[in-house]
Structure formats: C-alpha cells, structure tokens
Amino acid sequence: LENLEDLDLSGVASSDRRGSLAVSLAKDSLRVFKQTLRKLNLEGNFMGARGIMHITEEMDRECVLEEINLGRNCLCHVGCSPLSDAIKNQLFLKSIIIPSNNIGDRGASVLAAALIGMQ
After folding, report:
1. Are 62 and 90 spatial neighbours (Cβ–Cβ below 8 Å)?
2. Residue 111 CA to chain centroid, in angstroms?
C-alpha cells in the first residue's frame, strides 16, 4: 500500500449517514499517501460542507491528487469555499466531479473563480 494511487471510498456512508467514516478515511489517506494518491472517489457519502472542510485540510501543495469525485455529498454552496481554497493550492488537480450537490449559482461562482486563478 505504500504507493496507493487510486482509492474508491464511494458509498462508505451507507451505514453512517453523516459521512464521518468516509471523511476520516479520506483525510488519513490524503495525509499518508500525499505523494502517490492521484484519484480519490468519495461519491455518495453525504459528508456535507463540514466534511469537505476536513478533507481539504490535507490538500496542500505536496498533494499529487489529479482527480476527486465528490458527487452526491450534500456540499451546497457552503462546501464550495473550502474546496475552492484547496483548488488554489493544487498543482496537479485536473478533474473535480461534483454532480448532485446543490451548489447553486453562489457555489459555482466561488469554484469558477478558483479555477480561473489556477490558469
């Protein structure tokens, strides 16, 4: 496991509707495999804005993550702020998958500004 590149934690929250198990596993994985983990799937964990805040704490410049799937995690527009902060620090991130999160226009604007800043 020392070179883990792809981690699928989708649906981990099926027994934990708040997503705390998925958040904990994702955060630990990003910390331990910061320099090898390239793809992280967290779809369907209902972690909300608080969960994404905890996960993005581990997404710094050393993180080589290229793709993150956050679909169906109840992020709403509030979760877009910590995500946009993490995006600004990413050198390798190419794909952010966020369907079915009800981010609205406010959340989309926050993310768009972060993505424009990466260019």
Report:
1. no
2. 13
Closest-CA residue to 68 (of 15, 82, 2, 3): 82
Q: Tell me the pLDDT band of 57, cut-offs 50, 70 and 90.
A: very high
Q: At what angle do helices 80-89 and 48-56 cross, to 10 degrees?
A: 20
pLDDT at 12: 87
The answer to whether 68 touches 35, Cβ cutoff 8 Å, is no
| Residue 14 parent element (H or E) | none
- Bridge partners (DSSP) listed for residue 69: 41, 97
pLDDT of residue 118 exceeding 90, the answer is no
Half-sphere CA count of 54, side-chain side, radius 13 A: 15
Three-state helix/strand/coil letters over 7-49: EECCCHHHHCCCCHHHHHHHHHHHHHCCCCCCEEECCCCCCHH
**Residue 91 — very low, low, confident or very high, per pLDDT cuts 50/70/90?**
confident
